[in-house]
């Protein structure tokens, strides 16, 4: 598995990262056995980066990931863990007091002494000025205390990243996690990559399968895409199937192709999915992408290209 350096952190992340939101039963129920087996197989195949949040399944994902990582029985330095703060099933709270308490709760659930990255989760739902003046300074104290190694921010609207990065001292925010903006149907993150590089900020891109849109079985009930976008992705998946291709493989390879993205975080809940996604990465580095089918799919998705959905509260 290819390793890619994450901004100025010195961390080397596997190009395929393990998104643990499915371990919080977000995409349907996952047994403890499947959770452990998925994490174990991922690690065996070279995935060293695991992402979770207290929000996923209302703490279920953090607990499941913690158990599964412990069961690996390998030194802590061999895997990289990111979790988040500020978003909970009870709602959003980016206050210094809450995020400071949050890390201790997360570490207990994960059974870890530190996390590599702590990210403010979906900052468009909070006050961005509070993120700048209160939340990130609180996270810096956690860094000094050794509970976290690096600081990140996550969100859907891309403009929240530059809003924060333009207002914090350089080097304060180490990482951004963007989702659903570097996949076949939406590649708008690309325009922001030079800016992020100039700031020395590491880039993690999540949801290469557009949270299930680019799969044969389709998205979960709660998926926020418009009916038009869902229909176009369904048509693209069906076209692939009719032609003996798999849309998820094409989608993984599309996202993995940009090396300015350090890790592509894909949600996985079975050994089979882990093996398929790792095989997609291996095939990309040995044989390359299936450019012909990819361009056919891009044609099908052209009418909805870069269509997204609203997220967060309006900032004044
Ligand atoms: P995704 O695009 O990775 O899709 C996940 C879905 O696809 C799940 O149902 C999974 O079981 C399925 N899947 C995975 N591999 C497959 C394959 N080969 N074939 C068919 N289906 C497959 O979406 P995601 O899980 O939302 O995103 C990945 C991870 O990124 C999350 O688990 C989370 O860790 C992170 N993330 C973070 C944020 C945030 O911070 N705001 C938002 C979204 C995602």
From TrEMBL:
GO terms for biological process: L-ascorbic acid biosynthetic process. Residues 16-284 form the NADP-dependent oxidoreductase domain. It comes from the Eukaryota. GO terms for molecular function: L-galactose dehydrogenase activity. InterPro entries: AKR, LGALDH-like, NAD(P)_OxRdtase_dom_sf, NADP_OxRdtase_dom. Gene3D superfamilies: NADP-dependent oxidoreductase domain (3.20.20.100). GO terms for cellular component: cytosol. This is NADP-dependent oxidoreductase domain-containing protein. It comes from Escallonia rubra. The lineage of its organism: Eukaryota, Viridiplantae, Streptophyta, Embryophyta, Tracheophyta.
